[in-house]
Amino acid sequence: MNQLTTFPAGLPLPLGTSPTPAGMNFALFSRNADAVTLILEFKKRGKPQQLKIKLHPKINKTGDIWHILIPELSMPCYYGYRISGPFDPEGSGHAYDDSLIILDPYAKELRSSHWGEKWGGLGKQPCCRIQPPHYDWEDDRPLNIPLKDSVIYELHVRGFTQDPSSHVAHPGTFKGITEKIEYLQDLGVTAVELMPVTEFNENETLFINPETGEKLKNYWGYSPLSFFSPKSGYCSQPKDPLNEFRDMVKALHKAGIEVILDIVYNHTAEGGIDGPTTSFRGIDNTIYYLLDPWTRNYLNFSGCGNTCNCNHPIVRSLIMDALHWWVIEMHVDGFRFDLASILGRDSNGHVLANPPMVEMIAEDPVLADTKIIAEAWDAAGLYQVGSFSTHHRWAEWNGKFRDDVRSFMCGHKNTVASLATRIAGSSDLYQHSDRRPCNSINFITSHDGFTLADLVSYNHKHNLPNGEDNRDGDNHNISWNSGKEGPTNDKAVLALRSRRSRTMLAILFLSQGVPMIVAGDEFSRTQQGNNNAWCQDNETSWLNWQLWKKNETMFRFVQQLIRLRREHVVFRRDDFFLTADNADEPLHMQEISWHSLLPGQQNWSDGCHTLSFLLNGSQLPEEDDDFYVMLNGNIQTTKTFTIPAPPIRPHQRIWKKIIDTGLSGPEDFMELHAAPTVKNGARVIVPNMGCVVLQSTIAKTDKEKK
Which residues are catalytic? Predict the structure, then answer.
């Protein structure tokens, strides 16, 4: 076949595949390749066909981009590339291997497989898939829920519904999530944050569970094969992942729930030089990855063998194109960037003062209404919480909020001042430039670490089933087992664990900033002390929905906290408190006032474990109720707080006790109309590790009482 005359040369842009009136255009960047062969696999008249087309460097190449147009291509079609060039990883850094069939970084679908099926085709056959575009979005539009009004719910697509107790028809899938939409609405969250949903090989890990002999899986999926292609193993119909994902997004939007993706642009599944070559390494190793300039070894700031060269213009374009695609074609509402500090490193791994990649994402016009959230650290020790970017668009997972709340709720010394700062929106981190409290994504637990139930039940990690002799996972958990390690029938210990859990949740939802919870914490899910369940595709990680009924009072408590936050703007401020200017003014003039056990008396000493604060709803542009929150972080001792009068208003107000974590549910959270009245100057006992919250309401006149 004379390829030069059979097929048109095609166009260099856009990269990837793109349909044109004349056929399908293929375009691949590879600066240092000597030769590129496009391999097509399709059916013609029902029979499998494979076509190999060697691209001519003078006809099918513009600059560094190889391209060709294929008319009348039968679909669905699979494709990949054989790429020739030097293999000199210790010298030039190039690592070409034309015995392999390489994935297109811009492929929107990969060869489908059910979860757990062996990925036999990688490197051996064309694995990029093209299907005719077709989808009816039915006028679906972004919800654009303000970040300050958001409540984020982090979940794993498979783990959310895989357990039989979920009672869904399509467990472990995008469709399974749609079957739980009513539950999500009932809980009250405004967004789901999905752990990685782009294609990864769950079978890549070599670890064995020493207790069962079972081969473990890469369950979490922080090992991307693609920045675009949805995980077909998360689909009830693996051959149509694009549309099943879109169906989920559309259904969630109809329910008023946004979709945020946890995306991994800091490394890929290719690992170190001894890892599999599936895409980037075989296309242009020296451009896509950070290499030591002398040894040419991979710089490993991700902890996963390689680090993407995110500030190279080619890689920046790839990342931006992927983000655009998820927003434009898949209607995603936001992104959480895994190990985002890597986005700020240069080609030698040095930290840049003004990283182009970080600025591009923040200033991009397509992403102008998209939520962008940084995990502001990396695996090499770079910790940028509060300093990741001064741009007002960037929110951050606030690891300091997590640590300071945990420390206070473990009875540690010198924690009260830090806790107050976190409750007030972390002004020490975000009150500069145009940043606001909502730049802080507040959380106490996430997928990485203990669940909330385990945080109050274990002093130490219990990761032996991960197959690494308990060496993996963080040793700095800031946890306390409440008196006994692991499961117990001790009623006093169980009561303390419940109280501590609910107090931490109250702090989370009543603080300024954006609250995030991890799926299952609302009904006390446990991982039996495993704080790094990345490889546990089993009951350890799956949500046990029987706990929803068993711990329904815990669910109700979280549900009511979310409702309270939604109904009161005093917890969702646009700006920081003006405490520095008005702290000496009367209480009714202060936006927030801090106390210890007595009104107007503060105690910031190292040994203090009590804190109370008054939120003044009268000082807001949109007037709200007042709230008085009392926290006792003592391990054993109850404390008595004296209650101040509510701020002065034109109409007299009285206090009602709506939350008391010292009580069992449902009495721990009362509706305002049914809550008991607390008189000004009254003494209220708050149990150890407990929280009491008062809400002001207009006092009834004698006539109204009658």
Answer: 338, 375
